[in-house]
Write a structure and sequence with these properties.
Elements (H helix, E strand, L loop, with lengths): L11 H7 L43 E11 L5 E8 L3 H5 L5 H5 L4 H9 E4 L7 H5 L3 H16 L4 E5 L6 E5 L9
């Protein structure tokens, strides 16, 4: 069945009846300064109280970081400041087809981080070749950072000490990307 938009307000009830089996969103509210007769000339009913829209929360997709040691490029320049973006399902699936990952699953984090790090110092681009030449402490930092920004804090749990009843949080995440 092909759905077509109604051309005139009079055709709207017919279009609604034709697609009654499909869920529809509520029609948009009329502007507050609409004339008393309404757009079709019908008498206006009682005015509904204005509904305030909830403040929209912005989704953060990029997160700055600073490497503990820094990546040293071929000219000896140390790059420490960078930006990592949120990962998509595609980012996690594509590396699985990589031959290096198939031969050595530990290489998954290197390929994945090469996809989601969008900036590192003054480097023109970041790729898995750069990530594989980082110091181990920087790689471990980036793996933890990846987990933190993509899990939205769900890898931490509030616990209490059995001896003193002091409350604190513990990290529950796995040791490699994709484990948690």
């Amino acid at each position: 069945m092909r759905r077509m938009a109604a051309k005139a307000p009079a055709a709207a009830p017919q279009a609604a009846a034709a697609g009654a089996d499909f869920p529809r969103s509520a029609p948009a509210a009329a502007p507050a300064e609409a004339p008393a007769g309404g757009p079709t000339g019908a008498p206006a009913g009682p005015a509904a109280p204005p509904v305030e829209a909830a403040p929209r929360q912005e989704l953060r997709t990029e997160f700055p970081f600073e490497l503990p040691r820094g990546y040293v490029d071929d000219s000896g320049t140390v790059h420490r400041d960078g930006v990592m973006r949120l990962s998509t399902a595609r980012d996690e699936l594509i590396p699985l087809r990589d031959v290096r990952v198939q031969e050595n699953p530990a290489y998954l984090s290197v390929v994945l981080l090469g996809r989601v790090i969008t900036r590192l110092g003054t480097l023109p681009s970041v790729h898995d070749g750069i990530v594989e030449n980082m110091f181990a402490s920087d790689l471990a930092f980036l793996q933890d950072f990846y987990r933190q920004i993509n899990a939205e804090g769900h890898t931490r749990a509030a616990v209490a000490c059995p001896h003193c009843s002091e409350s604190f949080e513990v990290e529950l995440g796995g040791s490699r990307l994709g484990e948690s």
